[in-house]
From TrEMBL:
PANTHER family: ABC TRANSPORTER ATP-BINDING PROTEIN ALBC-RELATED. It comes from Clostridium cavendishii DSM 21758. Keywords: ATP-binding, Nucleotide-binding, Transport. It holds the Pfam family ABC_tran. The keyword Repeat does not apply. The keyword Methyltransferase does not apply. InterPro entries: AAA+_ATPase, ABC_transporter-like_ATP-bd, ABC_Transporter_VariousFunc, P-loop_NTPase. It comes from the Bacteria. Residues 4-226 form the ABC transporter domain. GO terms for molecular function: ATP binding; ATP hydrolysis activity. CDD domains: ABC_DR_subfamily_A (cd03230). This is ABC-2 type transport system ATP-binding protein.
Length: 229
């Protein structure tokens, strides 16, 4: 069963068309790499799935439901910029999510943060940018959602931290749910992907199984990414 079905979606901001006839489907239990350079439309796609942007035409179904109030409870979104007030302690951020989301698993959040060696009683503004990213990822993954949307989760991290992030995503991936990872940093994360969608100038350039791309082109997803862009 498809957890996500996007069909013929168009989105404009004023006179600028940023998504053009986008169609993407994603099966339950799989991880999709949403790949493209900055400004290609990746964030707009994720925010449209999350219900933060209203599309101009087309349709988006999450678990068979039209995007709206009902789907916000089954979609967990990690934006590309921090959303938690920086004067909060990590423990306060946990309580904030616990009170806001019924599906939030506090124990899971603490386990992930412990894995990252993040102190719970430190304010976010005292943490490094990388550790802030880890806190936001932990809180996002700690929800028992059907669909996780991770927008550029590796930006600003050193190679070691990127590897840690990938491991945590794999360790906490529930096979009954699905994940979309938006990124232009392909090398560090491509082993996650079951399926890959290349976005170019607001359009789907290619949507295909990751292994099929590797086999047909005899190259890695990163190498193919460099050829496309």
């Amino acid at each position: 069963m498809n957890v996500l079905e996007i069909k013929d979606v168009n989105k404009s901001f004023r006179e600028k068309k940023v998504l053009k006839d986008i169609s993407i489907d994603l099966e339950s239990g799989s991880i999709l790499g949403l790949l493209g350079p900055n400004g290609s439309g990746k964030t707009t796609i994720l925010k449209s799935i999350a219900g933060l942007y209203e599309i101009n035409s087309g349709s988006i179904l999450v678990d068979g439901k039209t995007v709206g109030k009902e789907t916000k409870g089954i979609v967990s979104f990690l934006p590309d910029k921090p959303i938690i007030p920086s004067n909060m302690k990590v423990s306060e951020a946990i309580n904030y999510f616990k009170n806001f989301f019924e599906d939030f698993n506090e124990e899971k959040a603490i386990n992930i943060l412990t894995r990252f060696y993040i102190p719970l009683y430190t304010k976010l503004d005292r943490l490094s940018k990388g550790d802030n990213e880890k806190v936001h990822l932990a809180l996002t993954l700690a929800r028992e959602a059907k669909l996780y949307l991770l927008d550029e989760p590796l930006v600003g991290l050193d190679p070691k931290a990127r590897e840690e992030m990938v491991e945590v995503i794999l360790e906490n991936f529930n096979e009954g749910s699905s994940v979309i990872v938006s990124t232009h940093l392909v090398r560090d994360v491509e082993r996650l992907f079951d399926k890959v969608c290349f976005i170019k100038n607001g359009e789907v350039f290619m949507l295909e199984d990751a292994e099929d791309i590797r086999y047909r082109n005899n190259m890695s997803i990163e190498e193919f990414f460099k050829e496309v862009y």
